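pinning this so it doesn't scroll away 📌
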Amino acid sequence: MNPSYNEREVLALLQDERTQKRGFELIVGQYSEQLYWQIRRMVLSHEDANDLLQNTFVKAWSNIDYFRAEAKISTWLYRIALNECLTFLNKQRAVATVSLDDPEANVVARLESDPYFSGNKIQQALQKAILTLPEKQRMVFNLKYYQEMKYEEMSDIFGTSVGALKASYHHAVKKIEKYLEGME
């Protein structure tokens, strides 16, 4: 995160065709890392996360003229990134030939063999537990737990009430606790 980043100034740059590219470069610099990690927690693979991050920025750039600043730039980018993740995961699910007995086995195996994942056993156990969650709960949990995002901002991203998001996070935490207890 760049401490000198000023959203109002960036929005002004985006309004003028001559400075639009510079404004977008500032957005990419500001949000690349946090978006990468949010995507990465959903798809696990470094290569897939990089591809989806690029797709997110390509979609954002190609739709920059439609961005009207009713939402924060970060909210808009997260919405694009989460839609990219859902599309990717749905395509992946359609081609996967995973055992019906253990649907997350394939994803867990990918986590364990990923050279970019350097987590210790506790981090690995938490990641495995998170992978057992339904996609929306996983997204809500990741945004709240890792990004410390406020429910109000998540509500803008998902188009869901704050109450529903709190319930989703609560259910996710309970499922993770149950999973981790079962590992002991």
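📌 and the second one:
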Amino acid sequence: MKMYLISDNRDTYTGMRLTGVEGVIVHERQELKEALEQAFEDREIGIVLLTEKFGREFPDIIDDVRLNRRLPLLIEIPDRHGTGRKENFITAYVSEAIGLKL
């Protein structure tokens, strides 16, 4: 099983390439759709890493893939600028999901 990166910046792409993860740099909506389709065609790709910017800018595309495809697994990662999420986003997410304050 391979990982594949779809990034919006060269620094994240370069860092992941140094670890052996192949990928592509995209900026536009159509480019993202095409990159995802290309990743879906490769049966060896089990995880697609996406920079968080795509989740903020194109949530409909990301949500559609997550709801309608079992594989590959989509994982949003922060880029070199850090995460756009709150400091305790995991705790807040779990609390919202189970209805209890942690």
